[in-house]
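Holo prediction — S-adenosylmethionine.
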Amino acid sequence: MTHQSSLTSLVDRFGRTVDYLRISITDRCDFRCLYCMAEDMVFLPRAQVLTLEEIYTLAKAFAELGVKKIRVTGGEPLVRKGALELLQNIGSIESLNELVITTNGSQLETMAASLKEAGVKRINISLDTLDADKFKAITRTGDLQQVLRGIQAAKTAGFERIKINAVILKDRNHWEVNDLVRFAVDYGIDISFIEEMPLGIVSQHSRADAYYSSDLIKADLVRNFTLIATAEKTGGPSNYFNVAGSQTRVGFISPHSENFCGTCNRVRLTVEGRLLLCLGNEHSVDLKQVIRANPGNMAVLKQAIVDAMLIKPEKHEFNINEQPIILRYMNMTGG
Ligand code: SAM
Ligand code: SF4
């Protein structure tokens, strides 16, 4: 079924243009963050996972359909063998304006400079706490110092903007929000606070009990910092504030307390090749099947992507008080 005469841009039923693709290039990770994964996660067998060549072909197809920004994520993208080469290849797609990554920072100490050379423009690094024991407890396997050295390496490599992503959970790290902003200010980098999303079933906490809203975080911060609202959007759901007297911007991603779906410009590709039309819904199209059934046929692949826009839902349906309707975990989804 075709709903657009020319295959040059992606527009959904609600008139939203999709120009941003997030690709999860692996479901594997060296950490096991308790809000993201079950402790005994079983990872996908290789045959179910897109090859690096397939990921590149998909990235190219999306770019030819008007996608301007690609975020490579995971799982931990930098633990996939060949990640750097893939990033180089995607980075050299001419029509793309921006190649960015989200990482837990564990590999940055050795990879930051090569990522810069590969054409990665911006890096988001997850950091929920500055306390080494707490860091170990939240990530189950991570080493805070290794990540801090990674952040330093990214600074040294000269990335334009580095942003910390912090998931805030009540009674686990909510009292650290001021320290995290102070850290960002000292490093001259940005920070976004994220409300936990109910993706997959986690065992160690109740998501409803752990909910700590963006408004509560803001109230904690204004006691120590002057936050100046900006009209700025970085093509994402964050609302940004400048921290007075600093280079730092503070963002709030509030899937529960604020609905940002009206301006949604993005879709996600899972490592299994499922195109997810909305983070908070299961609507998807199996692009791996399309690509494997039609090897080398870019036209068929692009048509499948254009047609997929027809099922992009109007909005997400998260409810932290109910069992998750979304059974996939964030590492599959590519947060
Ligand atoms: N491994 C990389 C990392 O941690 O940055 C990239 C993938 S990770 C899934 C991307 C982002 O999703 C991280 O900032 C992480 O904190 C966030 N995340 C994971 N599970 C989440 C959840 N249930 N709710 C909200 N954010 C979540
Ligand atoms: Fe790994 Fe990132 Fe998920 Fe943590 S949030 S387990 S680092 S994929």
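READOUT: The chain is about 30% helix and 15% strand.
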